Hints:
The chain is 67% helix and 0% strand. The two termini are 22 Å apart. Helix 1 (3-20) runs antiparallel to helix 4. By secondary structure, the chain is an all-alpha fold.
Amino acid sequence: xxxxxxxxxxxxxxxxxxxxxxxxxxxxxxxxxxxxxxxxxxxxxxxxxxxxxxxxxxxxxxxxxxxxxxxxxxxxxxxxxxxxxxxx
Length: 88
């Protein structure tokens, strides 16, 4: 195997694992999410926006997990999934 192939595998697997860390976001409590938003600079989160923010948090986490899974699968066997690697 060439060094470029090994580097490609390493980077795909690394990015896949980094994106899969977002799974933790699925299981966080709402109070923790609000505290995190306040740490990021949001001064006040109106209560009537809680369902919308919760929805977007779930969508973002799900999207990140799916992308991480694709990177991980492509990194485990790059020759089999060489068609999708340029898209990633």
